[in-house]
Amino acid sequence: MNVPLLDLHPQMTLFRDQILDAVTSVIDSTRYILGSEVSGFEEEVAAYCGTRFGVGVSSGTDALLVSLMALGIGPGDLVLTTPYTFFATMGSILRVGARPVFADIEPGTMNIDPGEVERILEADRAGQQRIRAMLPVHLFGQCADMGRLLQLADRYRIPVIEDAAQAIGAQFPLVEDTSVTWKRAGAMGTLGCFSFFPSKNLGGIGDGGMVVTSDAELDRILRSCRNHGAEPKYYHARIGGNFRLDPIQAVVLSIKLPHLEEWHRARRRNAGLYRELFSRAGLTDNPVVLPAEAYRDVKGADNANYHIYNQFVIRVPERDALRRFLQDNGIGCEIYYPLCLHQQACLEPLGYGSQSFPVAEQAARESLALPIFPELQQEQIAYVVDKISEFF
């Protein structure tokens, strides 16, 4: 049996005629830069997330970059983030001339550890106070502990940029007074950043991204920054870039957005079947550690997207051997991520080589993503678990 890590054909088959009609309409209009298609999609995403504004940009990476630019982060500044995520998180910090400060991750969720964040912020306050922003990542479709992170951000008076590239629609239980309010990823910090890369839960037919915010002034600056800093045209009060979302991507994503909740439910249903089958096989916890669901038992979780499973990532000490075995048996799988950010060669000249984040480094040695896309069939999931059982 063949089980791909991701199969986009079912979605394309479902929406092919709509997408072709919408894309043809854009082509025939001859209006190829921004326009009503982009502004309409921006409004749809902002409404979905629960923010006042959405600013469409060219990729998830550029969403991070333009957010840092809008906040005035630059040379000499430090940005606190996680060492265990995709390179774009760190790359965007470096591109504005700032430097990353890493806090280790939690072993369960593999998201940034608020205890480590607090320790670093306290040390920074006792020193030169150079940390100008916090950039947590909602890894694999589950929010970082935004309750504690927002408290720390408020205490130390720094903005929060949510890297929600893998987590559009994921929810976090914020405690307000004595009640629990489930907030969507991207809507809790100062700015929230999304990617519409094709492999995401809401994926386009190319690159695309968005920044959401409820701050009117930041919305204005973001729109200027994505268009070379012009405000108005040909008048540049700041330096920006060409970060505009393409209207072709906007119309495709607008077609898909109404189906996003259905796809979230399918991914969580698939995750539930994995858990059931791994348990029956006697593989849970040892030797296979399943993804943590940090907010599953919080009030209201039954109706919340506490995890949207952009990836279903298990942890096994024999990761590399298991990966080869699964691939040899027709099962797609991938390592997210084989090397922590502080270990990347581009940071060697900056002296990061001596740093150590043991929890993140262990995750990099053990993590393996299994197929989880919405259209995955039960027999395919059963085959994956059977083969993992056979391996052990």
Describe this structure in words.
This protein is an alpha/beta fold and 392 residues long. The protein has 2 domains: 9-258, 3-Layer(aba) Sandwich (Aspartate Aminotransferase, domain 2); 259-391, Aspartate Aminotransferase, domain 1 (Alpha-Beta Complex). The chain has 12 helices and 11 strands. The strands form 4 sheets. A 4-stranded mixed beta sheet has the order 1-9-8-5, sandwiched between helices. Helix 2 crosses helix 8, helix 3 runs parallel beside helix 4 (87-95) and helix 5 (114-126) packs parallel to helix 6. The mean pLDDT is 96.
Task: Write a brief caption for the model.
The protein is an alpha/beta fold. It has helices at 9-29, 36-49, 60-70, 87-95, 114-126, 146-156, 216-225, 247-256, 260-280, 319-328, 358-366, 378-391, and strands at residues 53-57, 78-81, 99-102, 131-135, 161-163, 171-176, 179-184, 191-195, 209-213, 312-315, 367-370.
Radius of gyration equals: 21 Å
Low-pLDDT runs: none
Strand order of the biggest β-sheet: 1-9-8-5
Helix count, per DSSP? Answer: 12
> What's the rounded overall pLDDT mean?
96
What's the total count of β strands?
Answer: 11
Helix content: 25-40%
Distance between the first and last residues' Cα: 19 Å
Topology as H/E string? HHEHEHEHEHEEEEEHHHEHHEH
CATH topology value of the largest domain = Aspartate Aminotransferase, domain 2
Number of domains: 2
Please report the first level of CATH classification, the CATH class of the largest domain. Alpha Beta
What's the overall geometry? Answer: globular
CATH superfamily membership of the largest domain: Type I PLP-dependent aspartate aminotransferase-like (Major domain)
Biggest sheet character: 4 strands, mixed
Strand content: 5-15%
**Alpha-beta content class:** alpha/beta
